[in-house]
Design goal:
Distance between the termini: 49 Å
Radius of gyration: 25 Å
Structural class: alpha/beta
Shape: globular
Number of helices: 17
Strand order of the largest sheet: 7-9-8-10-12-11-16-17-15-13-14
Mean pLDDT: 93
Largest sheet: 11 strands, mixed
Number of domains: 2
CATH class of the largest domain: Alpha Beta
CATH topology of the largest domain: Amidase signature (AS) enzymes
CATH superfamily of the largest domain: Amidase signature (AS) domain
Length: about 525
């Protein structure tokens, strides 16, 4: 640190000592010491390229899951006094592994001790964010160059076959043993033929068996809307890539909410298509009875372009002629499932009520009717049984051959799945039939509307078990009935986005997107938000 000392000898001795001690704590990842160096209270600030954290509690929570920083030295530091007991320090760090970073800090003497009241970190530029991407390029693969999706880029969830590349399924052991694919999945090929380019292969939760978005092997992708929050899974990589502007379209899968949850958490538009509408050839399955394909975008107009192209008989070679079901607009009538609302957090429910009131006061107010969606606990129990049985048939042999290869949370789910008997599965399937029929009846002549998830994205440090249980009870019904569902970013709760979910009858996917854009415009959000 001799260079720094020579540059600014005027730094007060006690401030320099505090700065040096803070830097040692950073390198050692001493969380207690780091917490002590930041001023207590709700006004302390910390920013970086991912966003702004406000308040000591939020900063501490972020730091607890960040991990340490790579080894580095301070090679330059500049001091500017802001007052008798406050100062600005700007320092340059040189990383042992190459690259430089910049730290800007406002220090204040509080009760005789120098503490940080505001900080901004500009880290070294990474070659790519490995928590988001498995492989990435500019482009990774070119598209046709012309077509309705020309100029758009795609992040593909690491479950889809791309000729010449392996499927990794969010697990390094699985990736190491995988063979390169001989053909590209139709869902990927459709986008490329329509003119889009492939930006890269994006991360997924292991085997897509989670809705949190974390991955013990590669880390947790950043939430593009809420700093320090979970991104939502299992389509976390494509969702974060789209939310952060790294790609325009996320090609993803949804079994129990894996498109809708990250869409809600990160303020995106996300469409789960009708079950079996988009063929799943070349896609690694989790549970075939519920798996479906869909897309994530930042705006409704882009989602409409993708759906119109990929779901129309003249625009896609991967779907049947189902455009006729979506040719007519869906009815401007909505049903509100009461049991689903019981899963929603109070602040989200209040925001949802305000949205309905705003729609009722709009120039073209739609009618709303409360309905019963049935026993969500029973529905989810049956759903989870069938999902687990299929997941174990798909992946159980590999898991038995690779003990310890998956993270604890996913391993626990597979262990539970391994104990499901054939009679358990048969009884669950029988139980699901009337549930699916009832849900299909509810959307015959109306569209179901409710918050996509219980509330804003939980922080990474939160205990998410209760949130996960409530979330799956909200997202599973559409999967049980095989219905299309779109999440639209229409609510803001505590400064964070929460989606509104619309569910319609099977095969009306493109009409559902049109209706969602009309709803957004009527609510004052604009069809592109």
């Amino acid at each position: 640190m001799t260079d720094a000392e020579a540059t600014t000898p005027e730094i007060p001795t006690d401030l320099r000592a505090a700065f040096d001690a803070y830097e040692r704590a950073i390198v050692a990842n001493d969380l207690d010491a780091l917490d002590a160096f930041f001023a207590p209270g709700p006004d302390t600030l910390r920013g970086d390229p991912a966003g702004l954290l406000v308040g000591h509690e939020a900063i501490s929570g972020f730091r607890a899951v960040r991990g340490g920083v790579p080894a580095r030295d301070i090679v330059d530091i500049h001091y500017r006094p802001l007052g008798p007991d406050s100062a600005l320090l700007m320092s340059v760090s040189r990383f042992h592994g190459g690259g430089r970073g910049l730290q800007t800090q406002v220090w204040q003497r509080i009760d005789g001790q120098w503490l940080i009241t505001a900080a901004h970190v500009a880290p070294r530029t990474p070659p790519f964010d490995r928590t988001i991407w498995r492989s990435v390029g500019d482009p990774f693969l070119p598209g046709a160059g012309v077509g309705p999706l020309a100029g758009l880029s795609v992040a593909v969830k690491d479950l889809f076959a791309i000729a010449g590349f392996r499927i990794g399924a969010g697990n390094p052991t699985y990736l190491d043993e995988a063979r390169p694919e001989n053909a590209t999945a139709p869902a990927v090929a459709d986008l490329l033929r329509a003119g889009a380019t492939l930006r890269g292969i994006a991360r997924t939760d292991e085997f897509a068996y989670s809705i949190a978005g974390d991955n013990v092997h590669y880390g947790t992708p950043p939430n593009g809307a809420v700093v320090g929050a979970l991104p939502g899974g299992s389509s976390s990589g494509p969702a974060s890539a789209v939310a952060l502007g790294h790609a325009d379209i996320g090609l993803a899968t949804d079994t129990a909410g894996s498109i809708r949850v990250p869409a809600s958490y990160q303020g995106l538009w996300g469409l789960r298509t009708t079950h079996d509408l988009v063929p799943r050839q070349g896609m690694l399955p989790l549970a075939q009875s519920f798996d479906t394909i869909g897309w994530l975008t930042r705006d409704g107009e882009t989602l409409q372009r993708v759906a119109d192209r990929c779901l129309s008989d003249d625009g896609s070679t991967s779907t049947e002629n189902v455009f006729g079901a979506s040719a007519d607009d869906l009815p401007w009538r909505f049903v509100v499932p009461e049991e689903v609302l019981d899963c929603v957090e109070p602040a989200t429910r209040e925001a949802f009520s305000r949205l309905l009131a705003a729609l009722a006061a709009s120039e073209d107010p739609p009618p709303f009717r409360a309905v019963s969606s049935g026993d969500l606990d029973a529905a989810f129990t049956a759903f989870r049984t069938v999902q687990g049985a299929e997941a174990w048939r798909n992946d159980g042999e590999w898991l038995r051959a690779h003990p310890g290869a998956v993270g604890p949370a996913v391993a626990e789910r597979f262990e539970i799945a391994s104990r499901i008997t054939a009679s358990d599965e048969a009884a669950a399937r029988e139980h699901l039939e009337p549930i699916a029929a009832h849900l299909a009846e509810l959307v015959d002549g109306a569209v179901m509307i409710f918050p996509t998830v219980p509330g804003p994205a939980p922080l990474r440090t939160a205990d998410v078990d209760a949130v996960r249980a409530a979330t799956l009870r909200m997202t599973a019904p559409a999967a049980i009935a095989g219905l299309p569902a779109v999440s639209v970013p229409l609510l803001t709760v505590g400064g964070a986005p929460v989606g509104i979910c619309l569910v319609s009858r099977a095969g009306t996917d493109t009409a559902l997107v049109r209706l969602a854009r009309r709803l957004a415009a009527s609510a004052g959000a604009g069809g592109g938000r």
